[in-house]
């Protein structure tokens, strides 16, 4: 008698523990809805970014530089980025003398911007349009994906379209910090997978005071005046073509 009572208790417990078919379906539906809702949630980026476009091919003589510079769109999610990338022209499709920029929101792609005034840029040439597009996309993904350890010093990237040779330039904030810039340059070279020599140059706004900056800030191992060509500009400001280099063999 006791054995039968125990068997009944165990059987009843098992029946209660097994959910009904309706309960299973309800749970599955609720789980699916939760997953679907989660998938709809945008994937936020670490910071906001903005695309800029400048068509210098239509620039009229005598018009100040920057007047044709336009902000295209500001975004802060992965979904927005891929939508923009699929809809906006690739750099190779732009007309000659056009510039395409991706910069952190709040920074204008101008030397005069406070975030860029003491900075410079790493530059790499591109003789093939397809290669320019590949380097551009790899750089964009590296920027919005925060792949640079020194991300706070990076301002953005510029694609310069020309008839003979295009160029990609990575803008940074602190030009006089050689170790910092070399680290950024090496990482960028790895990201875009190029063998060409990369060069770093100061922005003109910084070059205006370069002699004193060289005396006070640049490492003694650098010899800017012996290795760099100085050319007078129409504004009276002098420009240094190259300050740092990453050679092909690196």
From TrEMBL:
Molecular-function annotations in GO: RNA 7-methylguanosine cap binding; translation initiation factor activity
Gene3D superfamilies xrefs: RNA Cap, Translation Initiation Factor Eif4e
SUPFAM superfamilies for this protein: eIF4e-like
Keyword RNA-binding: yes
InterPro entries reported for this sequence: TIF_eIF4e-like (IPR023398), TIF_eIF_4E (IPR001040)
UniProt key word RNA-binding: yes
Protein name listed in UniProt: mRNA cap-binding protein
